[in-house]
Amino acid sequence: MRTLGEYIRLYFIIEAQYIKARMQYRADFIISSIGMLFTSLATLGVFWVILQSVPDVAGWSLMEMVFIYAFYMIAISPMQILFDHIWQLRFHVQEGTFLKYYFRPLNMMFYYMSEMFDLKGLIQLVMGIALLIYSSIQLQVDWTILKFVLLLITLFSAALVQIAIIVAASCAAFWVVESYPVLGLAWKLREFAPYPMSIFDGAFRFTFTFLIPIGFVAFYPSQLFLRPEEVHWFVYLSPIIGVGLFSLAYWIWAKGVNSYTGTGS
Amino acid sequence: MSLIHIENLNKHFKVLNRREGLSGAFRDLFSGNYKTVEAVSGISFDIEAGEIVGYIGPNGAGKSTTIKMMTGILQPTSGVIEVNGLVPYYNRIRQAQTMGVVFGQRTQLWWDLPVIESFKILREIYKVDEKIFNQQMEMFNDLVGLKALHMQQVRTLSLGQRMLCDIAASFLHNPKVVFLDEPTIGLDISVKAKIRSLIKKLNTEHKTTIILTTHDLGDVEALCTRIIIIDKGKILYDGDIKKVNALFGAYRTLKLQVDNFNESTLQVLQEKMTSHFGTDKNFTVSQTEEFWTDITFDQALTPLSDVLNFVMKNFSVLDVRIVEISMENVVQKVYDGALG
């Protein structure tokens, strides 16, 4: 068996090569990065437009919304950067090319995901960090070492939640031929993540909190820094939710991998 | 102890009995109407270290299913399977360290990377010692001139070049056993020959066991000492290639396009041939593609020129091709008792 350290080393070796190869398609990289930039700016634009006509969104100001959105951008980056290959899973499964991932002495999820690295996700990550700094200055968030550690923990948990939802949804490909709707829905749902959960009514809020907990991708953890006095008890469970959900998603993946029979050759 | 031990191995798949049409598709959603397909049923064999075994059979015979069980992808329904003393399905990662696999035309190298970088990544994955790595790369270069391809991106290689690289890569970590699935499919004769000689040399270099599945009897002839023929999930023949070669080596299939082809053509042809040449000459007349009539015969018994002459004289022939006996014909002949 390999240690975590060996896996990380191997990951860097593969990705260094991969990035080098991608750099040959500079135009592709630049255009998709610009696209990413504008998508993020457009969402921020929507916030700004909304808050031009109403004074606040369920009691949350523009700058607070920016903070939540920045948190969201950082939290979904690991999924975009490290798990980008998940989008191809259904093609590999259908065409039988998924078989090759069984033949190396590696953890299969690791080997599979290591084949892609989404560079433009780094742009999003950097933007997210910049916006988080900017908004917390504007909001005069009082950063202490403890709070900073809390930020790292909650970001890590939030990233796990997002990864788990997408991985679990993509695993539908192992059992269903037309599996895209499942993944498409899971991907669409993340768009609700950067909004205050209080704008959703009962059923939706319950779903986003307890069933498909996208509330834990940005809104709930952000509350800890913006309005600690309003935080619900379950928000403190977010590390457990993150690790638990990821374990569940990994279990589903392992089930799928073990039941896969491939196509005839 | 043998390297691969398989005893009474079975793999059954449950498949939904599908109904026709849209309404059938809807009803299938809630159907529990499954049938069992016996992809592999009750096969047994042992393979020793250093052997090259041809594992052959027609499409859907159960070849891939067996290979998938040997490589740990599929769990057998029942029976014993041990590779290198381990059960593959439960020891996938450990097993993979001592195996090499090349699956048809699907490359396992990194598509966007130069060939040499793929090999370097493989060195890390299999923890191949620097010194051994260099030795192996030297050997690959001696065998097929791999250095010339080092800096080329995998995506820019021709199919033949890619196959050479893929096969070399599967031997990089000195595996105990390598599975080669259709290594020469879609390649022209000269590249086929190159690949065959590479496989042969790699086998002798480190006494690596090789399991070769193929449709091409030429591959088997050039490489294997032992052949296992499988059809409908069962082993038809397991033994020396010489016996099979002696039987089929001289067989040829004459493909004809006959003018005014109709339903009775096959029968008429068969009857005329038999009455002219006698009943003991093993002629088989069949049809495998539209408009083409196949006559399979043994050159050792009847010279090709005689057959050709006879056909030309008695039929108005539009087009002719001569091919080596196909896998399907071999299997049919084995069924008919050719290997006794």
Q: Could you give me the name of the CATH homologous superfamily of the largest domain in chain B?
A: P-loop containing nucleotide triphosphate hydrolases
Range of helix content of chain A = 55-70%
The biggest sheet of chain B amounts to: 6 strands, mixed
Please count the beta strands of chain B (DSSP E, at least 2 residues each).
13
Beta-strand content of chain A: under 5%
Most extensive chain contact? A-B, 26 and 33 residues
> Mean pLDDT of chain A, nearest integer?
88
Using the alpha-carbon principal axes, give the shape of chain B. globular
Strand content range of chain B: 25-35%
Order of helices and strands of chain B: EHEEHEHEHHHEHEHEEHEHEEHEH
Regarding quaternary structure, how should these chains be classified?
heterodimer
Radius of gyration of chain B: 23 Å
Could you say which structural class the secondary elements and strand pairing of chain A correspond to?
A: mainly alpha
Radius of gyration of chain A, whole Å: 19 Å
Spatial shape of chain A: globular
The rounded distance between the terminal residues' Cα atoms of chain B is: 30 Å
Q: How far do the termini of chain A sit from each other? A: 31 Å
Provide a compact summary of the structure.
The complex is a heterodimer of chains A (265) and B (340). Chain A is mainly α and 265 residues long. Helix content of chain A is 67%, strand content 0%.
Commentary on this structure:
The complex is a heterodimer of chains A (265) and B (340). With 265 residues, chain A is mainly alpha-helical. Chain A has one domain. Chain A contains 11 helices and no strands. The longest helix of chain A is centred in the first third of the chain and has 28 residues. In chain A, helix 2 packs parallel to helix 6, helix 3 packs antiparallel against helix 6 and helix 7 runs antiparallel to helix 8. The mean pLDDT of chain A is 88. Chains A and B meet through helix 1 of A and helix 3, strand 5 and helix 4 of B.
